[in-house]
Amino acid sequence: MNHAASGKLRSVVLGLGSYLPKRIVSNADLEKSLETTDAWIVQRTGIRQRHVAAVDEPTSRLGLYAAKAALADAGLEASDLDLVIVATSTPDFTFPSVATQIQAGLGMTNGAAFDVQAVCSGFVFALAIADKFLASGSHRRALVIGAETFSRLLDWTDRSTCVLFGDGAAAVVLDARHGEGIARDRGVLTSHLRSDGRHREKLYVDGGPSTTRTTGHLRMAGREVFRHAVGMVTDVVTQAFEATGTSAADLDWFVPHQANRRIIDASAEKLGIAPSKVIVTIDFHANTSAASIPLALAVARDDGRIKPGDLVMIEAMGGGFTWASALIRW
Ligand code: UT7
User: Fold this and answer.
1) In this structure, what is the dihedral angle of CA atoms 15, 132, 310, 234, given to the nearest 10 degrees?
2) Which of 11, 94, 125, 296 has the smallest number of Cβ neighbours within 10 A?
């Protein structure tokens, strides 16, 4: 088929699935081992609880459950896919990738599978990469997964970081379909990816295979990250509006990365997005890094808020720094 004659290939969301580990750790649970309080955590972050993966649940396991749920939701088999991209900063092993392990778990032997590492912005980066593969015509159907076990990276004696994160995974199935090249098309309408490596010291892990030969622990200058977050995410969201000729008023849903309730609220306010359009899951998921956006999409789709045809803005900011947005017609 002649793509030019039929507009543009769009990556349409066909399925969505998620998985959260069974074990829930509440703020009250953390009060027992840390000098912290439920009141401090709720007031400063909005977090009330987080899910924590069992010892025998590595990232690939969480991702596989989410992938199977997304495929079932799409009514497809693994053999219908030709691309698997996993966004994660907490791989089971340095290599092989989590994506190839999930590919094997699905019984899929065709296509290509690889990981993307952009920390909390990872899902938006992975979605953008998959969209570009599909839009080029080189691949037809992609599984994009955000999967993390940040509990394994935390220093559980550091109250300034360990209360903030949780584990989980969620996935979308994207199908290449012809659109007209307009904002009314279904699918990923635009994506905007940014990074600036000068900010490394503000959010990083102090170990790795090529330096300490250990996994290391997450370290963060929280106030410094906070200071940059709102400006960065509102910049890329504004770029997405400009690229598509849309505005905050056109949005049905704003699904931000879930790092801090105050960052979410300040970003929505600066962008002129009504609070009723903002999807917030940080209270019961905490920050699940690359899994946070697809987990929030799954909650809002499953409870009937996100419906086919809705205009959905996703955005994230994280270690690197990296930051990104994508606008999706559901
Ligand atoms: O996903 C990647 C992106 N990450 C983020 O976006 C995170 C961005 N940063 C944040 O969300 C916030 O900066 C935090 C939630 C991490 C911290 O909130 P804050 O309002 O910036 O607090 P702070 O770091 O300025 O700390 C205030 C006080 C300090 O005590 P002093 O120095 O004022 O006496 C901390 O020691 O709160 C203390 N503190 C705590 N107290 C009770 C820090 N952590 C805790 C805690 N419980 N868990």
Assistant:
1) 120
2) 94
